[in-house]
Amino acid sequence: MPAVVPRSARPDARPEISPDALLVPLAPHEAYAADIERLDGRAPLGAADDAWLMLAHTLERAAALPRADRAAVCAAGARTVAVLLSPPTPSECGDDRQRSTVAAVVDGLSAIAVRLSAASTRNGPAGDRLAGAGEPESARAAAGALQAVVGQQEQAGAFLLAFSTLAAMRRALTPVLDARSRGLLLAQQGRVARQLGALAMAARFYRAAARAGHRAGAPDVVARALLGGGVLANMRGNYPKARTLFRRALRAASHAGSAVLRRSGHQGLLLAAFAANDADTALAHGWAAIRGLPEDAAEERAEMLLNLGEVGRQTGDHRAALGACLSAIELTDLPRLRLPALGTAARAAASLGEHRLLEFIARDVERTVARSGQQFENARTLVELAEAFDGYRNDAALCYAARAQSLAASGTFYEVATRAAHIIDGYVDADAGREHARDTAARSPRAQAVLRTLAAMPAAERYERLAAC
Predict the structure, then answer these.
(1) Which of 35-44, 115-124, 265-274, 437-446 has the lowest mean pLDDT?
(2) Which DSSP letter does residue 89 get?
(3) 289 contacts 314 by C-beta, under 8 angstroms
(4) Of 228 and 273, which is predicted with more confidence?
C-alpha cells in the first residue's frame, strides 16, 4: 500500500484546476500582488519595480482607449518612467545593464507615441498598414525595448505581471506592430505561460508566433516558436515530437543566421538525442552549443553545462555530472537554471555516496524553490531530490515525492507525476543502481574528452568544501 495516497485517489479530493483555466491578464497592481503571493511574500521583486508597474499601467490604459488617444498616454508614460529613473545610489551603481534596459523604455514609449500619433491621422485598416509600413525598424526597436523589461520581470519570477504586460502591449500597439513584432510578442507570451505551467495556452501562443513568423518571412521568429514547442514536448515527455521540433528550429535558426538560436537548437537536440539513448550525439550537440560563447554569457553557459551534466549523470559518469552542474550553479542565481542543476547534482552526489553534500544541496533546493514560482521546475527538482534520497533516507524521499506529485498533478506534467508515483508506491526499477545500463557502449574519443573536461571543473571542490563547513 502506498505510504502517501495521491490526492486524486482520496474520496474528499476536489478536482484539480488547470493553470490554463486560471491564467488571464490582470490589472498591473493585481498581477504584482499575485506574484508576491506566489513567491511566498518576497518583495520587492526587483530593483526597477516602479518602472515595471508604470510600463504595465501605461500599456493597459492605452489598450483601453480609442486609438486616437493612445499616443498621449504612451508619451506621458515615457515622461513618468524618466522621472522614476533617479540617479542611482552607490549600492545600485553595479547594476548598469538592468538600469540601461529600463532607461531604454523612455525612448521606446516616446517612439511608439510618435508612431501611434501618425497612425491616428489615418482612418481604418489602410491607415494601420501605412503606419506599420514606414520605418518598421523604428517600431520594432521600440517594441524590443519594452520586451526587454518584460524579460527582467521574468527573471525575477514576476510571471503574472509579465503575462499581463505583454497582453496589454499586444492590444495597445496593434496599429504600429508588423507581423514580425507580433510574432516575437506571441513567442515571449508563450514562454511566460509555459513558466506558469499553462502548457496548452503556451502551445497556442507558440503556434500563433510561428504563423506570424511565416507571414513576415522571419525565420528567427519561427525558430523561437519551434524551440518553445520543443520545450513543451519535452515537458510532456513526448520526445520524438521534441526532436522533430528542435531539428526544424535549428534549420530555421541557421537560415536566420542567428548564433544564439542555433545554440538553443543544439541544446534542444542534446535533450532529444539523449532521450533516444544516443549519449555521444547528445554530448556532441552540447559541446557545439557551449563552444564559442562570449565571456559575459554566464546564464547561457550555465544552461548548457547543466544539460551536459544530466547526460553525464545518466551515462554513469557522476563526477562529470557533479562538476558540470556545480559549475552551472556558480554562474547564475536564476531559479529556472539553478533548480535543474541542483536536481542533477543531488542525484550525482547520492550515486557517489556524498551524503553531506546531498544534504547541503537539499537545503539549497528548498531556498530556491521558495522563491522560484515556476511550477514545472519546482516539481521536477523535488522529484529528483526524492530520487536522490530514495534508498537511504526514505522518509525524506516520500516527502519530496509527495510535494512533486501535487505540483505535477495540477500542471499535467506526466513524466514528473510518474516518477513521483514510483517512489510513493515503492516501485523498484530493475536498472536501479546501474544508471541506465542500456547505455554501456564505449564512448567516442570526442565524448570521452567532453566528460573528462566536465569532471575536472573546479566548482565541485569549492562547493564540497562549503558543504563541509
Answers:
(1) 437-446
(2) P
(3) no
(4) 228
For 402, residues 6+ apart whose C-beta sits below 8 A from its C-beta are 4, 420, 424
Q: What percent of the chain has pLDDT over 90?
A: 56
Q: Give the pLDDT of residue 464.
A: 66
Taking phi first (over 0 means left), then psi (-120 to 50 degrees means alpha), and beta for anything else, what does residue 436 get? left
SS percent in the chain: helix, strand, coil, step 5: 75, 0, 25
Q: Which three cell numbers stand for residue 172?
A: 495597445
Q: Are 346 and 388 in contact (CB under 8 A)?
A: yes
Q: Which of helix, strand or coil describes residue 469?
A: coil
- What's the CA gap between 317 and 309, in Å, rounded? 9
pLDDT for the residue 392: 76
Q: Give the separation between CA 95 and CA 101, rounded to whole angstroms.
A: 10
Which set of grid coordinates corresponds to residue 193?
505561460
**C-beta separation of 262 from 253 below 8 A:** yes
Asked if residues 219 and 252 have their Cβ atoms less than 8 Å apart, the reply is: yes
User: For residue 312, what is its C-alpha cell?
Assistant: 553525464
Instruction: Check: CB of residue 223 under 8 Å from CB of residue 252.
Output: yes
CB atoms inside a 10 Å sphere around CB 406 = 18
Nearest to 282 by CA among 437, 439, 419: 439
Pairwise CA distance, residues 355 & 396, whole Å: 13
In 3D space, the residue among 331, 300, 312, 270 whose CA is nearest the CA of residue 458 turns out to be: 331
Other residues' Cβ atoms within 10 Å of the Cβ of residue 295:
6
* Interval 187-243: pLDDT, tens: 999 999 999 989 999 999 999 999 999 999 999 999 999 999 999 998 888 888 999
420 touches 401 (CB < 8 A): yes
160: pLDDT strictly greater than 60? yes
d(CA 276, CA 270): 10
Report, as an integer, the average pLDDT of 367-377: 88
Residues in the chain: 469
Residues 410 and 274: their CA atoms lie apart, in Å, by 27
